Amino acid sequence: MHYFLLIYNRAHRHLQTVQEFADRNEAGRAYVASERAAQGDPGLEIVLIGADSLETIKRTHGQYFDAPGGRSSYLDAAIIGPKSPAPC
Amino acid sequence: MAPRSKSEINRCGDLLRNQLDGPDGDHDWERVNYALDVLGEFRTSFQYPLTKVTVGLRAMVKAETETVTVAQRLKRMNRILGKLQRMPDTKVARMEDIGGCRAVLATPDELSAVLRRIRRRWDVVRERDYITDPKPAGYRAFHVVVERDGRRIEVQLRTRGQQDWADSLEAFASALDLPLKDDQGPEEVLEFFRAAGEGIYRDEYDVPVDDEFLARFGAARAAMTDWAAHRTR
User: Fold this and answer.
1) Confidence of residue B232 (pLDDT cuts 50, 70, 90)
2) CA pseudo-torsion sign B180, B185, B186, B187
């Protein structure tokens, strides 16, 4: 199992950072620290996801990646493209 | 560190609910930060039992299909706090979705097969069939709650179409800052997602698409497009 800490910038609709951890305790500590650092910033979504690979997470949590959904024509009207990338 | 009692965890949840309901200036930040630490510790205690359940779920999915799409997540703290605010009777120590894992299956048959395996091999605490009875915004999935090491873990089983629907709704809600995940928001948007969810369900479960449904979806899509064109944000 690999642990991925994702920081998603809602304002820019952009995955800002992805940090990978092999150790779940280290990942847990980083999760809490990142949430604390972003406390009060509603523009950031921080989530810790565990999976065998980042590719899997793209299929289980597609909302954090470009152009989620849209695979069904029923969802076409809900597609919102990414805004300009967030500054580094 | 000694584990916290459930009553202390619940007291911290109640404190955060009360503090966050009040104006910013009224916050006792020392107590808020202490309560956040306690809730953070409590959430971390789900990580190991959650990993055990996820590993078991992977094995069950692998027994049914070659493509294993399984992941786990610890609930975001702001989602925990939001739930406490929305649902005043909720106690943190009794929440069943702090640790959750998800399998995405290619077809309804695969989903049913994995569900049968879960029922055979695990003691299921609770089942929620949102496929038969979708949530108000149209969310569909099958949820199972199991317990490991004294922690309740939610297992979500979704078809590919149900996952695409959820991704789409969450991305839309996040981009436009709408509380759609809590089944709230403009009725035009909610009705669009309800109708889209039903269309995807009909496709995946071989339910005929009749004229009545097509008219409903067309109207919902037009209303959504109109709403999007005129929204102020």
Assistant:
1) low
2) positive
- Distance from the Cα of residue B166 to its chain's centroid: 9
Beta-carbon pairs below 8 A across chains A and B: 131
What mean pLDDT is predicted for residues B180-196? Answer: 95
Contacts of A32 in chain B (CB under 8 A): 40, 44
Alpha-carbon distances of B106 from A32, B69, B141, B201, rounded to whole Å: 34, 9, 13, 13
Contacts of B74 in chain A (CB under 8 A): 28, 31, 48
Burial class (CB in 10 A: 0-12, 13-18, 19+), B218: exposed
Q: Is the pLDDT of residue A68 over 90?
A: no
Please choose, from the candidates B111, B128, B215, B227, the residue with its C-alpha nearest in 3D space to the C-alpha of residue B180. B227
Whole-number pLDDT of residue A7? 96
Q: Domain residues of chain A, as ranges?
A: 2-80
pLDDT tens per residue, range A1-30: 999 999 999 888 889 999 999 999 899 999
Please tell me which of the candidates A32, A75, A80 has its beta carbon nearest to residue B196: A75
Q: Do the beta carbons of residue A60 and residue A47 sit within 8 Å?
A: no
Return d(Cα B170, Cα A51) in angstroms, integer: 20
The answer to whether B160 contacts A71, with C-beta atoms less than 8 Å apart, is yes
- Whole-number pLDDT of residue B101: 98
Q: In this predicted complex, what is the ipTM?
A: 0.89
Which residues in chain B are closer than 8 Å to A7, comparing Cβ atoms?
none
